Amino acid sequence: MPDIDIKKILKSYDRKKLVLATVCSHSSLQIFNGAKKEGFKTLGISVGDRKKIYDAFPLGKPDDFLIVDRYTDIIKYTDELVEKNVIIIPHGSFVEYLGAENFLELNIPTFGNRKVLLWESDRKKEKQWLKSAGLTMPKQIKDPKEINKPVIVKYYGAKGGKGFFIAKTYGEFKKRVDKDKPYFIQEFVMGTRYYLHYFYSPIQNNGYKLNSGSLQLLSMDRRDETTIDEVQRLGSIAELEEIGIHPTFVVTGNIPIVLRESLLPQVFRMGEAVVDKSIELFGGVIGSFCLETVVTEDLEFKVFEISARIVAGTNPYVSGSPYSELIQNDLSTGRRIAQEIKYANNKNLLTKVLS
Ligand code: AMP
User: What tens digit of pLDDT does each residue of 294-333 get?
Assistant: First the structure.
């Protein structure tokens, strides 16, 4: 990953006129809304006529738009964006649309530690990070012939669970797998899903104290996935599979949720371990991150994924969640990001939260 000289770029910035920018999708309404609440100007980067929908949501509408032909063109506008004192707030679609390599090379100050992408997007490294942090992950099945209980088969790089399928036997696996695409097989963890939205600040001590900085739990959600989450309206999955209808895992939305309070200590212990390990491995996961978990009947968390930036699951909480309301009224993840940048700017610590 190229070393981008953020310090040098920031020196050219008018720090009283910082502009928070992101791609118009994913969690952008929340990001713009949160930035406005903290007094920032905002810029939406958009393709085509997406811009139009922002008229319907004036409080989530950016002050300005940059219209590009395709998202990969953002690179071409680097100088223009730097001239505007832009700080990029990346979200999942930002990274996907721009492409991981372009994102890593983008010469514009970006919220969070971009190095995390190398650990998060590589399954082996992700596993190394989470396992060495002491988290329990679903078992991986190396040889499909060893399938003797429900597994989920995942294709590398598949977005939003596309193409994933469940198999209960080797025979089922063989029938369904697309051998042309690289895949891996994981134990299908039975339990209830919780997607935990954390915020790690390396520079503030206003949350659960860590060795360095502090951690907040801002919210949690459950993803709504089609067709698995509603297919039972038609019959049991086993019945449907018999007639060739297989459930899919495509994310279509997010549902707010809260957790048994007695499980919160575990939630913080996991968050703390993930942050501590990230500091050791690559300088720290900064700002928002999400642990995607299943809680089993033994009340054990199994973590199947980490997303190391704002997730769309924070969108139900534009004006706060049952957790963030206990930190500050009206606090969304989007707003918390803006607060961190504001605090860092005021204390001359921007390089600690940008990369
Ligand atoms: P992912 O792309 O890894 O987030 O997975 C997509 C969806 O598949 C998740 O949101 C879960 O609903 C489901 N899922 C993934 N891994 C597991 C697992 N090991 N056990 C049960 N469900 C899973």
Answer: 999 999 999 999 999 999 999 999 999 999 999 999 999 9
User: What's the gap in Å between 100 CA and the centre of ligand 1?
Assistant: 22
Report the pLDDT value the prediction gives residue 189, as an integer from 0 to 100: 98
41-47, strands of its sheet edge to edge: 64-68, 41-47, 19-23, 86-88
**Residue indicated by tokens 């973590």:** 303
How distant, in Å, are the alpha carbons of 155, 167, 184, 190 from that of 179?
A: 10, 15, 11, 26
Is residue 1 pLDDT above 90, yes or no?
no
Mutation pick for ligand 1 pocket among 153, 190, 251, 304 (CB with most ligand atoms within 8 Å): 304
Residue to probe by mutation, ligand 1, list 121, 156, 249, 311, most atoms within 8 Å of CB: 249
Q: What is the CB < 6 Å shell around ligand 1? A: 138, 152, 154, 161, 164, 186-189, 193, 223, 225, 249, 292, 294, 304-305
Q: Ligand 1: which of 139, 140, 152 to mutate, most ligand atoms within 8 Å of CB? A: 152
Segment 197-206 shows an average pLDDT of 97
The DSSP result for 221-268, as a single string, is: EEEEEEETTTGGGTS-HHHHHHTT----EEEEEEEE----GGGHHHHH
pLDDT band at 3 (very low <50, low <70, confident <90, very high): low
- For range 225-233, the mean pLDDT: 94
Query: Which ligand 1 atom lies nearest to the CA of residue 191?
Result: 21
pTM of the model as a whole: 0.96
